[in-house]
Design brief:
About 55% of the residues are buried. A nine-stranded mixed beta sheet has the order 9-10-8-11-12-13-14-15-16, sandwiched between helices. A seven-stranded mixed beta sheet has the order 21-20-19-22-18-17-23, with helices on both faces. It has a five-stranded mixed beta sheet with strand order 2-7-6-5-4. It folds into three domains: about 5-85, Udp-n-acetylmuramoylalanyl-d-glutamate--2,6- Diaminopimelate Ligase, Chain: A, domain 1; about 105-315, UDP-N-acetylmuramoyl-L-alanine:D-glutamate ligase (3-Layer(aba) Sandwich); about 320-480, Alpha-Beta Complex (Protein-Tyrosine Phosphatase, Chain A), CATH 3.90.190.20. The chain has 17 helices and 23 strands. By secondary structure, the chain is of the alpha/beta class. Helix 4 (about 115-130) crosses helix 11 (about 305-310). Keywords: ATP-binding, Cell cycle, Cell division, Cell shape, Cell wall biogenesis/degradation, Cytoplasm, Ligase, Nucleotide-binding, Peptidoglycan synthesis. This is UDP-N-acetylmuramoyl-tripeptide--D-alanyl-D-alanine ligase. It is found in: Cytoplasm.
Length: about 475
Amino acid sequence: MSGYLWTATDAAAATRGTAQGAWDGVTGISIDTRTILPGELFVALMGENRDGHAFVADALAKGAGAALLSRIPDGLTRDAPLLVVRDTLDGLRDLGAAARARSRARVVAVTGSVGKTSTKEMLRAMLASQGHVHAAEKSFNNHWGVPLTLARMAPETDYAVIEIGMNHAGEITPLTQLARPHVAIVTTVEPVHLEHLGSIEAIADAKAEIFCGLEPGGVAVLPFDSPHFARLAAQIGEARPVTFGRTPGADFRLDDARIAGAVTVVRAHARDVALTFKIGAPGVHFASNALAGLAAVEALGGDITRAAMALGQWHAPEGRGHRWSILLGPGGLDGAVNLIDESYNANPASMRAALAVLAAAEPQDGVGRVARGRRIAFLGDMLELGPEEAPIHAALAAAPEMAGVDLVHCCGPRMRALWEALPREKRGEWFEDSEKLAHKARRTVDAGDVCMVKGSLGARMARVVEALKGLGRAVDAQLREEE
C-alpha cells in the first residue's frame, strides 16, 4: 500500500495529463488553499471571478503534494510537482470518473427540492456501522462538487453517498451519469427554482434526470405523497421503484412522527416490518428523509434495523437545524438563549418545516428580563421563486406552523411582504438586509428565548447566527444533551 489516494502515474493516466517534478502521489484533493492539507492535490479551478492558477504557489508553499493545472504560472520552480492538463475542471471530472470506475462501492445519489443534505448525512450515519462510507463533507452537489466528491473516494469504499443539486434543467444529467448510482433518491418536489424553471412540472422533470444515470438493475426511491409522483415514476426507465411516505401503499410508510424534546420519535413500516426509532434532532420533516434513507439502505443490501438505530446518534448539520445553547454570563449564570440554525437555505416547504420545529420548542419562563420565554424567528428572503415571490412570502403569515411563533423579525426586500402580512402581535422589525438585522438581533432576545434563523444562502443569514452566538458562550446543544 502506498498510502496515496492517487499516485502520480494513475492521476496522469486518468486525466490524460503530464506529471512533472518530483512527486509520487497525493493523499487527498483540495480546491481551496485556505483548507488544504499537506500532501493533497490542489486543483486550480477557473471561475467567473477566480482563477485557481493564481493560488498554485500558495498551495505548494502550504505543502500540497502537487497541483493540477492547465498552464504553469510564473514563479514556480522547475521541479515543482505538477499535473498539467488541457482543462482543470475536465481533469477533475476525469479523476471522478476514474475513482468511480476503480471502486467496488455501492453508490446512492440524492436529489430533491428539500432535504438533500439531511438525507445524505442520515445515510452516512446509517451506513457507517455497515461498511466504509464516503460522502461529501459539505453540500458539494454541483458541477464541480460532484466530481470532487467522487475523486476523493478511496478504492476500498463500501458505500458512497452523492448529493446532486441543480437550479436549471439539464444540470443533473451529466452528474448522475458520472456518479453511476445503484440507487437514486428524489426526496420531494417543491416550488423551488421557479425563477429558472418556470413551473413545478419542469422542476419534477429536472429532478427526474437523476434516474438516467442509474446502473442496470438500479432502484429509484420515490416520494409517494408527492402530487408529482406519477410524473417522476414515468421517468425511471427500467429501474425498480421503491416508495416512501405517509400514503397507504408506500413501501416505507410513515405511521407517526412527533417531536419529544431534542429528538423525533418515529413509528413506521418497512413493508411488513414495524419500526420504532428515534432521530437525534427535533423535526417531523426529518422522518420523511429517514424513510427515504432506509429505503436506500435496503436497496443497497444493508441492514435497515441497524440503520434505524443509528439515527438516534444523527444530528442536524450546521445551517440545517443545528442547535446551540448560548450561555449568558459567567458559566451561564444569567441563563441561556437557545438557537436553531437554519441559515443555509430556504424555500416555502423548508421554511414551514423550520417554523414547526420552532413552534414545538420549549422556551423557559422567569429567567430573563422578559417574564415569559418566547419563540422568535429571524427570517431572510427566499430566492429564485419567480414572479410570484411576494405572495409566496406573504402566505407564510397564514401557515399553521406560524401560530406557535411569538415574534418574527424579517430582512430583505422579499420578506417585506411577509412582515406586512403578519398580525401586529407577531410583527417584530424589518430591515433592508441581514447585516442590519444582525446588528439589532442581539438586543431583541433574552434568557429563556428560543430563536430560529432561516433564509436563502444569498440572504446571508449566517450573519444573524454569528451575532446571536456572540451574546455569550455558544455550546453545541446536541452534544451537551448527550453528556
